Amino acid sequence: MSIGTILLILLVLALVGVIPVWPHARSWGYGPSGIVGVLLVIVLVLFLLGRL
């Protein structure tokens, strides 16, 4: 597997992990999804620049 495939799998797992479906996670707000969004933008920029 290439590094791009591994990063894609990790991002999909992170996107599923930030869904606040558990009662203790409802008060977290937009923090986890904001972090995943920043990571997604970084990976997208690296992919468009040809670094992945």
Question: Could you give a short description of this structure?
Answer:
With 52 residues, the protein is mainly alpha-helical. It is built from 2 helices and no strands. It has one domain.
SSE blueprint and pairings:
Layout: H1 3-17, H2 31-49
Helix pairs in contact: 1-2
Structure description:
With 52 residues, the protein is an all-alpha fold. It has one domain (3-49). 65% of the residues lie in helices and 0% in strands. The protein is built from 2 helices and no strands. It has helices spanning 3-17, 31-49. α1 (3-17) packs antiparallel against α2 (31-49). The chain is elongated and about 40 Å long. The two termini are 12 Å apart.
Question: What about the largest sheet?
Answer: none
User: Which value, in Å, is the CA radius of gyration?
Assistant: 13 Å
* Unreliable segments of 5+ consecutive residues: none
**Average pLDDT:** 76
Q: What level of helicity do the residues show?
A: 55-70%
How many domains make up the coordinates?
Answer: 1
Shape: elongated
Share in β-strands? under 5%
